[in-house]
Structure formats: C-alpha cells, structure tokens
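Researcher: We are triaging several targets before committing to wet-lab work. For this one, the compound of interest is NAP. I'm pasting the protein sequence and the ligand SMILES. What I need is the predicted three-dimensional arrangement of the protein with the ligand bound, expressed as structure tokens, so it can go straight into our comparison scripts without reformatting.
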Amino acid sequence: MTSILITGANRGIGLELAKAAVDKGWLVHVSVRTQAQAEELSSLLPDVQTMVFDVTDREAIAKAAAGLTAPIDVVINNAGVIGPDKQSPLNMDFEGFAQTLAI
Ligand SMILES: NC(=O)c1ccc[n+]([C@@H]2O[C@H](COP(=O)([O-])OP(=O)(O)OC[C@H]3O[C@@H](n4cnc5c(N)ncnc54)[C@H](OP(=O)(O)O)[C@@H]3O)[C@@H](O)[C@H]2O)c1
C-alpha cells in the first residue's frame, strides 16, 4: 500500500490532499502544528496518522520520524506561508521573508 505524508494538512490544499489520499485507500500521514489541530483532524479523518510539528523545527521532525513504523513513499511538503506584508526591494521585511523561505 502506498504511504504518503502531507505537511500542513489541517486546512486548505493540504486537507483536501489528505482527503483524496484517504479516498485512494493509501496509508496517510499528516502533519499539523498543534495538538488541538491534531485532535480536530483525527475526528474529521479518523484513518490518518497525525504528527505534530512545525516544519522549521528539525528536532520535532526527527522525533516524529522516529515514531514511524514503515517507510514513506510520497512526501508532499505542502506547509507554507505567503510571506510578510513588506516585500518590495526598498521596503523589505528581511526577517519575515527569511522565515517564509525557511518554511
Ligand atoms: N492557495 C494558493 O493559491 C497557492 C498558490 C501558490 C502556492 N500555494 C502554496 O500551497 C501550499 C498550501 O496552500 P494553502 O492555500 O492551502 O495554504 P493555507 O490554507 O494557508 O494552509 C497552509 C498550511 O501550512 C501550515 N503551516 C504554515 N506554516 C507552518 C509551519 N511553520 N509549520 C508547519 N505547518 C505550517 C498551516 O498550518 P496552520 O493552520 O497551523 O497555520 C496550514 O496547514 C502553501 O505552501 C502555499 O504557499 C498556494
């Protein structure tokens, strides 16, 4: 059975991808950022395996990965943000933009 991990799956495109993967009968792992989101998602999609981590937190990712019992075939690294308000060359939020790239 195909095994997939979709990050940022509590809403938006990630959530719809998770639903589509469940419909295919795949083994679906998803990531969210908080325990509350994990519980909400588990009640919506009871068959998915939910992990809790921020994609910029390597330690938390490693911890979540250590809990896997089988390899992941497909990763959709969907988590992302649109970036800071100030993104023009003469008025740039450099810290905010660096964080956007990190995610
Ligand atoms: N929608 C579009 O038109 C469009 C166009 C081009 C590219 N994209 C990209 O496609 C992806 C999904 O878009 P979307 O519209 O579904 O976005 P969305 O509704 O804003 O959802 C973004 C998801 O990413 C998660 N996320 C944000 N920062 C995170 C972090 N540091 N660690 C872990 N998760 C994080 C959010 O979690 P929280 O709920 O906790 O914030 C949420 O689950 C994004 O990467 C976006 O940049 C979207």
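Researcher: Any quick observations?
Model: Residues 12-23 form the longest helix (12 residues).
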